[in-house]
């Protein structure tokens, strides 16, 4: 069962998402919150698999809520998906940098929304390569921190190759085929790279791959 926390300051939006999710046998909405602070507290109480968080809210917005969830070791299993009305913008990019697994536009088709929830619950990033390129091209402006820079130097050649393939949108099975290794070995390379780069999940790994220059937005 996929356990979902809804965080949005608009009751009508929350009700609509809940009604859609409650129709699914494998998804359960376990709590609702109207701002980021309340969302954080409910995340700590219920430990959801997915936190669907609106990016613009009073008290604490989606970026701050994402940052605080990502910084809490007790919430390491919570995958944050940002909800936005506007599509790609600087807020979305900052949310991804803060630790979000991806983002969804609120006018998404119901079947695509449900698919995205299931994808995020598996731990995969909701980031199409084309969207990532456009985000990185437009919004990368801050230098990498020293911890990330040091982590890049620690990556083995195979780990670097795996990170590049993740950034290009390949699944673990596709990475394994490309590198002629087992899916388990591919997953190991990715997990080790995430540890060395201090990436919370695949989405952050993708962002770091572009920011660091391992992958070029213009050529991928």
UniProtKB/TrEMBL annotation:
Matching PROSITE patterns: HTH_LUXR_2 (PS50043), RESPONSE_REGULATORY (PS50110)
Keyword Cell inner membrane among UniProt keywords: no
SUPFAM superfamilies per record: C-terminal effector domain of the bipartite response regulators, CheY-like
Key word Zinc present: no
Biological processes per GO annotation: phosphorelay signal transduction system; regulation of DNA-templated transcription
InterPro entries with a match to the protein in the record: CheY-like_superfamily, NreC/VraR/RcsB-like_REC, Sig_transdc_resp-reg_C-effctor, Sig_transdc_resp-reg_receiver, Tscrpt_reg_LuxR_C, WalR-like
CDD domains given in the database record: LuxR_C_like, REC_NarL-like
Domain Response regulatory intervals: 3-121
MF terms in GO: DNA binding
Modified residues (4-aspartylphosphate): 54
Keywords assigned by UniProt, alphabetized: DNA-binding, Phosphoprotein, Transcription, Transcription regulation
Positions of the HTH luxR-type domain: 148-213
Protein name (record): Response regulator transcription factor
